[in-house]
Amino acid sequence: MTCHVQLVGSQDSFGLFTCYWFTCILNLLSVGLSSVHYLSGMDGPPPPEEDFTSIPIAERLAHKNWKARVNAYESLIKTFQNTASDTDPAFKPYINNPDLLKKIATDANAVAQEKGVECLVALVKFAGETSARTREAVVPALVDKCLGSARAGTKTQSLELILQYAEVENSAAGVVVCRPSLSLNTRL
Question: What is the mean pLDDT of residues 118-128?
Answer without folding.
Answer: 95
